[in-house]
Amino acid sequence: MWILKSNILLSLIGLFITQNVMAQRSFELLKRFPAEEAFQAVAVDSSHFYAIASKSIGKYDKITGKKVTSTEIAVKHLNSGVVINGKLFTANSNYPEIPMTSSVEILDTKTLEHNGSYSLGIRWGSLTWIDRENEYWWAMFGHYNEFAHETGKDNRWTTLVQFNDDWQPQESWVLPPEVLERLDEKTISGGSWGPDGRLYLSGHDRGELYAMRLPEMGSVLKLDEIIPIENEGQGIAWDRSVPGVLYTIVRSKLAVNVLKLKE
User: Fold this and answer.
1) From CA 186, how far away is CA 201, in angstroms rounded?
2) Which CATH number does the domain housing residue 149 bear?
3) What per-residue string of b and e applies to 143-158 under the rule 16 or more CB within 10 Å gives b?
4) With DSSP H G I counted as helix, E B as strand and the rest as coil, what are the percentages for the chain, rounded to 5?
């Protein structure tokens, strides 16, 4: 009952606040490529994009969309990925098992061979995305209302954690009510630091992005803008080799979108 009442309150608060943050910007669809692994997320570097499914990854040419190679990986549930210095860092969880466990699985982008792993255990929740910004690792750990009867934690416990190079936690933040009420009892599925220094988050299903920033004080992230976008939630990736270009997936079509932010 307390979860139901709290969700109603979040919805009322969210409806009031989001009136002031609806988008003034939009995205233009540049390309759409079919990719059979485009079910969970996409990652990107200067020459290729990487379509990510729960247990498989496909490497594709950015210009032609032609598949270069693919691999199967013996994990439970890949959620997203990011390319850093020639390595593909993927967020893995044991969803939908309880207790939630998480790890970072590392692959070589040239061959997609697995060449590293770092376990994050059960401390924070289900790892949904990771990124690298300002010499720190950033990771979001999700909680889901469907498991609250077992864990005692609904999606309000979803947490952004800042880690140092040795994966030691530094600081952490939670989501504001106006974002939580739009997640439809799910959690954040994707995240990527944008070229403007803001953190862009995507939910589980809705075609929209949440432009966030760290608060000047306190522990709650600040929502700047809600931007409609052609995707169905899930993992996203800014192309850091082409300013203003974002990669998303459309899981119902098994496709990767290439989008340009229009100011």
Assistant:
1) 13
2) 2.120.10.30
3) bbbebbeeeebbbbbb
4) 10, 50, 40
Position 75 scores a pLDDT of 94
Domain count, the chain: 1
Say what the pTM is.
0.91
Q: Which long-range contacts (CB under 8 A, 24 or more apart) does 100-108 make?
A: 100/125, 100/126, 100/141, 100/143, 100/151, 102/126, 102/127, 102/141, 103/75, 103/127, 104/130, 104/139, 104/167, 105/73, 105/75, 105/78, 107/57, 107/71, 107/73
d(CA 196, CA 221): 16
Sheet with 159-163, strands from edge to edge, namely 126-133, 136-142, 159-163, 169-174
Mean pLDDT of 58-62: 98
DSSP 124: S
229: containing domain: 2-262
